[in-house]
Specification:
Order of helices and strands: EEHHEHEHEHHEEHHHHHHHHHHHHHHH
Bound molecules: flavin-adenine dinucleotide, ligand DLZ, iron/sulfur cluster
Radius of gyration: 24 Å
Helix content: 40-55%
Oligomer: single chain
CATH topology of the largest domain: Serine Threonine Protein Phosphatase 5, Tetratricopeptide repeat
Largest sheet: 5 strands, parallel
Strand content: 5-15%
Shape: globular
CATH architecture of the largest domain: Alpha Horseshoe
CATH class of the largest domain: Mainly Alpha
């Protein structure tokens, strides 16, 4: 060493630092100790990542725009960035071959990276590290609140993993919403106060969306040109692509929206994609927003008397609780988790999940917002598309493919435990203690969808009856052997048994007819 460096010209022997598309944080561990006189940061837009599922066009545009802006910011600080654009002629289109190409082009003494979020790419990077000609250091992703080790220690020896108990540990450890050793307000969880149906006449406030800047406009144009057959539209792109833009969305949310977040957290309304949700998952998952910081700022709103406890606790629970919990479960159980199909679901995903062409008003609305915004809020994902896919018995691989494709915030570590776990019980009860199976009555209670729907939410059987109703009892009947012993389903199973053999046969036939009508046919 000791020679004057000319990073990027081949004379220096620094460290090659990989930054992936969802690692766009100044404090990223891969960048720690960066010596801008010798080191080079590698960022690469590659087809392998853009097409391993056919991501929504907005998701690719979001990631490319955010990567380009992050690279420019590093360069403004004097860092050398080897930035490979999607249409660069020499692009080899995989992360590992771009690492190889960088090492071939210029001597480095080491490679540093932050562990990657998905098992699939982590495997490829581990294989690269084994054969690389220089040492490869994989550093922990410290942007999460709970480390892998910490989660493993918490999970160790437990016969079941429940988010609620994990969440309490996180509250204690971070001190967030604590009153000494007790939870603020005397209760850990205000879930029961998060279930109001939208009052008639009340509409959600107008939301701050981000106008695409020059980098985003260019990325949108690239995606329109290079990925024309991917799902979704680009017209209403409004996602923040820089930390500064994301901060504006967070600040607006905390000031104007958070106070009502709790009340309407589970509510749905036709043509209202955002409700009182944060619209921050894309930014947190990319690394533009720090999850712990948002939690602390939400807590401050409560402490200053500007937001009620049910709102602030409900919001913090999603991030400090659910987000950290599903990430812990994913890495604890992968790769076996990716194969789980506890209910032996074997049907195709109906085509209307892609086209939106269905008379089911609730499903049509969720598919429309997914197509136009690459977004649907939690209850839409869980109780409309997720619930329906489970009741239909759609194969978990097809469900994962859909969720990974359609949402701008989708990465397997967070998507899979939510679909295979929370929404469809394909994991057999690791994430949730029972399937969230529900008939149309739930959707009717929490939304205004049913009033304008061709199907009758009060009717239980026949072509005109709400499909959720037609499917519900058949689902329980079909899965009796697997679910009958679940104590949380004791009541519906008792009801089913009281129906008697004839009625039960008829309910099963009703559900089968509905599955066929909706196109959930067996996979060939
Ligand atoms: P808000 O409702 O404002 O919540 C605030 C934040 O809490 C979110 O930004 C998110 O970071 C976190 N959060 C909330 N719920 C969850 C959860 N269940 N798991 C993890 N984090 C949560 N979230 C993703 O980020 N990526 C996904 O691919 C994804 N797939 C999902 C699939 C299904 C079937 C379900 C039921 C949920 C999924 N979620 C996923 C969780 C949740 O729906 C989204 O995080 C949320 O809708 C994002 O919008 P928001 O920022 O407005 O969230
Ligand atoms: C999702 C995604 C896409 C669409 N494109 C890229 C890319 O071109 N380059 C890149 O470095 N990362 C991309 N990503 C994010 C990665 O898929 C993500 O880092 C891994 O899945 C781990 O979470
Ligand atoms: Fe959805 Fe059934 Fe209501 Fe129609 S009636 S909107 S299908 S829940």
């Amino acid at each position: 060493m000791g020679q004057t460096s000319t990073a990027g010209t081949g004379a220096g022997r620094g460290t090659l630092r990989l930054v992936l598309g969802d690692q766009l944080s100044d404090g990223l561990s891969a960048l720690e100790g960066l010596d801008s006189s010798r080191d080079v940061v590698l960022m690469a837009e590659v087809r392998d990542e853009a097409t391993y599922v056919k991501h929504h066009k907005q998701k690719i545009a979001l990631i490319f725009a955010a990567m380009r802006s992050f690279a420019s910011q590093l360069e403004d600080r004097g860092v050398t960035v080897r930035y490979v654009r999607i249409d660069d002629p020499g692009n080899t289109h995989s992360i590992t071959s771009e690492l190889d190409r960088a090492l071939d082009d210029q001597p480095f003494e080491a490679v540093a990276m932050t562990e990657c979020g998905e098992w699939r790419l982590a495997q490829a990077l581990a294989a690269f590290a084994e054969t690389a000609k220089v040492p490869v250091e994989v550093r922990e992703d410290r942007r999460f609140i709970c480390s892998h080790d910490r989660f493993r220690r918490w999970a160790s020896g437990k016969s079941s993993l429940r988010m609620e108990f994990f969440y309490r540990e996180m509250r204690r450890e971070t001190g967030i919403l604590m009153d000494g050793k007790a939870p603020e307000g005397g209760q850990w969880n205000y879930d029961a106060e998060n279930r109001k149906k939208l009052t008639k006449g009340l509409r959600p406030p107008t939301r701050l969306r981000t106008k695409p800047d020059a980098a985003a406009k260019a990325a949108i144009a690239d995606v329109a040109r290079l990925f024309p057959d991917h799902f979704g539209t680009l017209d209403d792109f409004g996602w923040p692509t820089t930390a500064e833009q994301a901060e504006a969305v967070v600040a607006d949310f905390l000031k104007h929206i958070l106070p009502s977040f709790g009340d309407w957290q589970d509510a749905m309304a036709e043509g209202e994609p955002w409700m009182w949700h944060g619209l921050i998952s894309t930014s947190i998952n990319l690394g533009l927003v720090d999850p712990l910081d948002v939690c602390r700022r939400a807590e401050a709103e409560y402490r200053k008397g500007r937001a009620p406890l049910n709102a602030v606790e409900g919001f913090i629970r999603q991030i400090l609780g659910w987000r950290e919990f599903v990430r812990g479960v994913y890495w604890l159980k992968v790769p076996e988790y990716r194969k789980r199909n506890f209910l032996d679901a074997d049907r195709q995903l109906p085509w209307f999940y892609w086209s939106g062409e269905t008379d089911m008003a609730c499903v049509a609305d969720v598919v429309a917002t997914s197509r136009d915004n690459a977004y649907a809020h939690h209850i839409q994902r869980l109780m409309v598309t997720g619930n329906l896919a489970m009741l239909l018995g759609v194969h978990p691989d097809a469900i994962d493919d859909w969720y990974m494709t359609v949402y701008a915030d989708a990465y397997e570590w967070v998507e899979m435990p939510n679909t295979r776990g929370m929404a469809t019980f394909a994991d057999g009860g690791i994430v949730g203690s029972k399937p969230y199976a529900a008939s149309g009555a739930y959707i009717d209670r929490m939304s205004d969808y049913c009033g304008g729907c061709r199907y009758d939410v009060k009717a239980k059987a026949g072509e005109g009856a709400c499909p959720f109703n037609r499917l519900y009892w058949g689902f329980l009947e079909r899965n009796q052997k697997r679910l009958r012993d679940n104590v949380r389903l004791a009541m519906p199973y008792r009801t089913l048994e009281n129906f008697g053999a004839e009625k039960r046969k008829a309910l099963l036939a009703e559900a089968e007819a509905c599955r066929t009508m909706l196109g959930a046919v067996p996979i060939d």
